[in-house]
Amino acid sequence: MNPITVSQVNNYIANKLRSDFNLKDMAVEGEISGLSQGAGHIYFTLKDKDSMIRCAIWKSIRKNIDESLLENGRQVVVIADISPYAKGGSYSLSVRGVMARGEGALMAEFNRVKKLLASEGLFDESHKRPLPFFPERVGIITSSTGMAIDDIRKTILQRNDYVDLIVFPTIVQGPAAPQSIIENIREANRLNKEGKRIDILIVGRGGGSPEDLAAFSDEQVARAVFNSEIPVISAVGHTEDVSICDFTADVCAKTPTEAGKLITDTFQLKEEILDRIRMLDDSIEGRVISERRAVEDSMRLLSSEIRGKIRQLKMEVDKSVLVLRENNPQKIFSKGYAAVTDSDGKIISHVSAMSKGEQYEIIMNGGSAEVTVLSTKETKQTI
Prior knowledge:
Layout: H1 6-19, E1 26-38, E2 41-47, E3 52-57, E4 75-85, E5 90-100, H2 104-119, E6 137-142, H3 147-159, E7 164-169, H4 177-193, E8 200-205, H5 210-213, H6 219-227, E9 232-236, H7 244-248, E10 251-253, H8 256-326, H9 329-333, E11 339-341, E12 359-364, E13 367-372
Parallel strand pairs: 3-5, 6-7, 6-8, 8-9, 9-10
Antiparallel strand pairs: 1-2, 1-4, 2-3, 4-5, 11-12, 12-13
């Protein structure tokens, strides 16, 4: 057997440690002791009742660390990679994050889920859908007794009381919360498929501790939000709170109240458009009424002129009738006058037109008579 050197042994072990995926991004809980600094770096030992391990926070990492948590005797959770030192045959933890005890496990799980879903593309902007412009029905997945539902209802209904709100009473914290949230997301989508259209889903709750909000960073809850066929607004906690659902939802609202505003902002725009349409309608109606009145006035004026014309024509006709009556031959004949016509029926208006021996017809009151002219005699007319 050929012997190997100490360096070879240490290098082999160091390489094995560096390549072990389980020794990267570890969340390690323990008590701080032996805290010290040197050359801008921070050193300490992390220990529990049975063991200890040396830790280092390098100068380049310090800006990312909450150093108020670094106290001897304090229980913390560090996020770290294994850092072997082959020359000395030792290893330590290269620390990249420090959290108070109790938050560590939640944060580690948060980071795990965030990293996993991001790698699958679930956070990509290409998956984000715009909210419907004028939603008519909104589903709300939250506790039926918390402040969040009151804030959402109040905000929406104060701005537009025509929108239909469907509340899906949901457990929002504790072990049963993730499944409750998932089931209600599925139920809302089922109703939407069956014809009871839901335009937007609000998934969220009011503020609380990291433990209270943990359900909205659950991996399966985040996937259910992503897979919803109905666009989702995530509205979890206060402005400073962050959940995994914020990344997989189509829109992230900082608070439940803001979620209500996001929906009703489009309603207000709709009302502005409708107001402008109503103003236009009123303007058009006013123009129509004005034009109608002008036409009616013209008709009245025209009618008055026509009536005047008719009256004038009637007077002229009456006058003509009177003249005709006065000049009616029968009336003239009744006064002893007569008319003479030749053989062609032409009126003889002067004695010079008559010839001796010719026959003429004399028309008078009561009839006519045929006569033969024996002689004619002209008389001098005097006026």
